[in-house]
Design a protein that fits this description.
Layout (H helix, E strand, L loop, with lengths): L2 H9 L3 H12 L8 H10 L5 H12 L6 H25 L3 E2 L2 E2 L1 H27 L3 H23 L7 H26 L5 H24 L10 H4 L5 H6 L5 H21 L8 H12 L4
Antiparallel strand pairs: 1-2
Length: 292
């Protein structure tokens, strides 16, 4: 079975939860037409909602009751992720996103930047309303690190980094938001755990490694040109492990080994959870990351 087919089955375990998150997300948008409709369509476009899904599965695996505050928190996570996509499309000069014309192509860079900022502001308002200094600090640090990762990436275009530098950038740009998703969901429940944070972090690194493999071998189905990152000078794991662009497919094979390493690390941090259909789904979803 393909990753997408398995994912749909796992998603069904939290279908109502994801619907609540989607409602929370869409209820935040209120700007001048026609930008309002464009932002709503962008936020409604097909999306995995993998971060809130992980949180819901983890919380239920830990026998933690999900409250309205969790839906608000996890909608803020998704708003931050979507704002970063709008900004990334401007930086990367990407013309499409989720099969639709990118915001900056329809409304220009200025309105696209402001739109991303507006969505970020809505996310932080939700976080502030939770009245938790620890959650606010976690969000702030994660957003700061996302920016640092992007800045460093821009200064290192067309340079082959070390694998350690690649993991650091992947942590800053991608994995920390996964970590924050689990961490803050547990803080909200007063059930903060080392295992939960580290599961989110390692899952996020694995997710980024998988995305970089996809970028080399099969990105056309996601609305991006194959090898888009590499051609733009963003040298990811397959290039690093190949020692250059010439034998990139050889690098892909080595990248699968790296991916499996982080998949195994992620699963290790699930071992303390009691057996349940939700824990089984988390293990299955983590393992499915290898299916590119």
């Amino acid at each position: 079975m393909s990753f997408d087919s398995e994912y749909k089955q796992i998603l069904s375990l939290a279908e109502d939860d994801i619907r609540r998150v989607n409602e929370e997300i869409l209820n935040t948008i209120s700007v001048a037409a026609p930008l309002n409709e464009e932002l709503l369509e962008f936020l409604k476009a097909p999306s995995k909602r993998i971060r809130p899904l992980l949180a819901f599965l983890y919380l239920r695996s830990a026998n933690i009751k999900i409250t309205d505050r969790h839906y608000s928190l996890l909608s803020a996570i998704e708003l931050i992720h979507n704002a970063s996509l709008i900004h990334d499309d401007i930086i990367d000069e990407c013309g499409t996103r989720r099969g639709r014309t990118a915001i900056h192509k329809s409304f220009g860079n200025k309105l696209a930047v402001i739109s991303g900022d507006y969505i970020l502001a809505n996310a932080m308002q939700k976080v502030a309303d939770l009245n938790s200094p620890k959650i606010l600090k976690s969000f702030s640090e994660t957003m700061k690190n996302m920016c640092i990762g992007e800045i460093n990436q821009q200064f290192n275009l067309f340079k082959i980094p070390t694998i350690e530098q690649y993991i650091e950038k992947s942590t800053e740009k991608t994995a920390n938001l996964f970590k924050t998703t689990i961490e803050t969901s547990l803080i909200l429940s007063e059930k903060e755990t080392f295992e939960g944070e580290n599961f989110g972090l390692n899952f996020g690194i694995a997710f980024q490694i998988r995305d970089d493999i996809l970028n080399v071998v099969s990105c056309e189905k996601f609305g991006k040109p194959v090898n888009n990152d590499v051609e733009c000078g963003i040298y990811n794991a397959p290039v690093i492990l190949a020692g250059g662009k010439e034998n990139i497919m050889g690098g892909v094979e080595k990248t699968y080994i790296l991916l499996n390493n982080y998949i195994d690390k992620s699963k290790k941090y699930l071992s303390s959870l009691e057996d349940s259909v939700y824990k089984e789904a988390l293990i299955k979803l983590t393992g499915e990351l290898v299916n590119v």
